[in-house]
Write a structure and sequence with these properties.
The chain has about 450 residues and is an alpha+beta fold. It has two domains: about 220 residues, no CATH class; about 140 residues, Protein Transport Mog1p, Chain A, CATH 3.40.1000. The protein is built from eleven helices and 14 strands. The strands form two sheets. A seven-stranded antiparallel beta sheet has the order 1-2-3-7-6-5-4, sandwiched between helices. A seven-stranded antiparallel beta sheet has the order 8-9-10-14-13-12-11, with helices on both faces. A hairpin with a 2-residue loop joins strand 8 and strand 9. It is elongated, with a radius of gyration of 23 Å. The N terminus is likely disordered. Keywords: Membrane, Transmembrane, Transmembrane helix.
Length: about 450
Amino acid sequence: MSTDEKFEDDLIYAISRTGDAFQAEGTALLSGGLRRGRRRWRRGSAAAVAGGVTALALVATGGVYLAGAGGPRGDGGQPVTVAAADGSGAPASGTGAPDAGAPGTPVQSAAAAPAAAVTGEQMAGLLKALLPPGTVTVAGSRGSAGTGNQPPGAPYASVVFDDGHGQAAIQVGVQRQAPGDASLLDQVKCPDPKFQPAGVVCTSTLLADGSTLMVLQGYEYPDRRVDTKAWSATLAGQDGRLVQVQEWNAAKEKDAPITRPAPPLTPAQLGALVTDKSWDAVVQALPTPKPQSPATGKEYSAEEILAITAGLLPAGLTESETGGQPGYANFVLNDGKGKSMVELNVQDWSRALKEHQQGTAKDGDVVEQVFAKARTLPDGTKVVFEKGADKAAVWTVDSLRPDGMRVVVGAYTAGGPKQPSVRTAPALTEAQLEAIATSPLWVLKK
């Protein structure tokens, strides 16, 4: 795979990280990538499912591709307000760094029919024109029509920028979804803090024109094994535009020495870059996708999972800091001995169970993989209990009923999986976890 192809894959994954209809977890940045992938996993993908603890982790920590872990900047994480350019293609100020307190300029709506195609060279030129003074080397680009063996797709540009304080990789990509597509907003929601290490700085701000801007300061690697910082800004517009810029404090996204303490563009500059009117022409060169049909799946919503679980908790414990997505929910319990995060997957495994029983599984027998060492309750329910440890210890009960209803419940010794343990055991015992997982309140949806 060439450098350009790898970047394009990474960019598309990032841009589609949150929605079913858009692509990011991570594309169309989110037109299907992350959440669709999570749903495939929840339905029994042999490649992704390895057991109870892993099952929860795959869904819960899929998180945000760009977020990584999150890097402190010292600005208190306050919402960033940025000024757009005047439409000439030049930044609002000579340095590309508008006053952080200036009001945002509304983004123009794109035409329904695509305009003239934008080339990769034009994408690189637009990015270069919006950067502060410095040396810019183009590392890769593509236009809206594709070139050579590249089919049409999301246009992007990648450069190495040096303002005299060290080289830094900067990438920008533009995508278009159907106007009003609700999944757009998923891509500009800050990641759940329960799944981020301390120090994550993320703001999501509604601008005057109704678009939403997310600015995130994180790290390339969530576990901080390398302190390469990854900062980004993502704009979701009411006309369906999705503009995203990413930057690092190294000349490449991965496997390159850190060259400077922080990426070159400030949060305000990142916001100014993605809200600049220069991207109007790029958006207009992209076709307007048809609206996606509403999902009609049989999954439990996060709200339904939380409501059922609330009634199954021991007396005196209540849910707080709730979160989730279809088929998955999480919350925090605090019994006075420290926070304990709890998460659940609720899945229909009736097909996987039938294939297991008939010996017809084509992609691997996931039931055998997950429940090979399970004990069986009198009603035929298979149950597996595991104790695991990351930065916080987690106890997990994974259950599979004879009708195919699978419920996984995990509880941590901390307020999140990336946080240090604050207690010796989770707020829920093994018996209490099993009672929640095997409750008859979980019923397959027809």
